[in-house]
Write a structure and sequence with these properties.
329 residues, alpha/beta, Spore Coat Polysaccharide Biosynthesis Protein SpsA, Chain A, ten-stranded mixed β-sheet, two-stranded antiparallel sheet, 11 helices, 40% helix, globular
């Protein structure tokens, strides 16, 4: 099994200096590539000089996470792609459980390892924790992380199990499946495009797995922090995109309730004196309306839509019923 680790870079020399050594040291089973999104710093020159065995692929523009990977991966020959963030520290033997899981089940198309917090290594990390799910209205949550509440890693998720979505911070995907899905949806630009990818894979009958025997440490927020209103905009907009494209059932009814819930979120931000985030949600909705016809076309092209949720409303579970960890759900 040929594995290619592809790290997307944009002006990230400092991150590469800090985190690339662990990837090189602990990834002997794979080839490593840097896909550069038209950086203006000297990060590519740094990699070429310090790591001559690492191949660099230079995109002509910064098309974000989705387009950046779609363009770069066309130049890589492998059985499995690992889309790895540049702010990740990997651990010894992290690839072996992943490889074994792919070999054990031929229907497994996408895998995520255990994501722990680089700054607080005994806690799960926000971006994917121990594997992701969404509720009926498209709000994401994870084993080990619900909204901003992060669980301590006590070995409670050391299993291998089916999940709904795998984190884009470290996502293994079979090349054939990635191509069958026509890659990541470039309308997303960044954030939650991995949820859309996994959802489309599941609609085709493929399996998405979490493998707890593989551990990595993720900084998170290296590109956009959780306090950045642009991240709020992308998360709310892209969640609506994915829901409209892929959800089973009467989507207009789902969207009506979802828009009400988003309005409540906007009001909450306003009461917390975070008007930029309220404005970001409004902008997300206007962008969603502008792309609605495209999303409906994508929806019509999806012939099989599976049941996609375990919880009706994670918002209600968390804020009303005070269920702040996955096993209490």
């Amino acid at each position: 099994m040929k594995i290619a680790i592809a790290i997307l870079n944009w002006n990230g020399k400092e991150l590469l200096q800090k985190f690339l050594p662990s990837v090189v040291e602990h990834s002997k089973e794979a080839s490593i590539y840097i896909i550069d999104n038209a950086s203006t710093d000297d990060s590519v020159a740094f990699v070429n000089a310090q790591y001559p065995n690492i191949k660099t692929i230079q995109n002509i523009e910064n098309g974000g996470y989705a387009k950046g990977y779609n363009d770069g991966l066309k130049h890589i020959d492998a059985d499995v792609f690992c889309l790895l963030n540049s702010d990740v520290e990997v651990t010894k033997n992290w690839l072996k459980p992943i490889i074994e899981s792919f070999k054990t089940d031929s229907n497994t198309a996408i895998i995520q390892p255990k994501l722990l917090d680089y700054k607080k290594k005994d806690f799960f990390e926000y971006a994917g924790a121990a594997g992701g799910f969404i509720d009926k209205y498209g709000y994401p949550y994870c084993r080990g992380r619900i909204f901003n509440t992060l669980e301590k890693d006590l070995g409670q998720y050391n299993d291998t199990t089916e999940i709904f979505w795998a984190s884009g911070a470290c996502l293994f995907v079979k090349k054939d499946v990635f191509n069958e899905l026509n890659g990541l949806d470039e309308h997303f630009f960044a954030h939650m495009e991995e949820i859309d990818l996994c959802w489309r894979a599941k609609n085709l009958g493929y399996s998405v797995k979490y493998v707890g025997g593989s551990e990595i440490y993720h900084v998170g927020g290296a590109t956009l922090s959780n306090t950045n209103s642009k991240k709020t905009y992308l998360n709310f907009r892209n969640s609506l995109y994915a829901l409209t494209k892929n959800a089973k059932g009467l989507v207009l009814g789902l969207l009506f309730i979802r828009l009400i819930l988003d309005g409540i979120a906007g009001l909450k931000f306003l009461l917390e004196f975070k008007p930029k985030h309220t404005l970001a949600i409004l902008k997300a909705h206007f962008a969603f309306y502008a792309h609605f016809s495209y999303l409906l076309k994508q929806r019509k092209s999806t012939k099989n839509k599976i049941k996609y949720y375990q919880r009706t409303s994670i918002v209600f579970d968390y804020f009303v019923n005070k269920k702040t960890n996955y096993k209490s759900l």
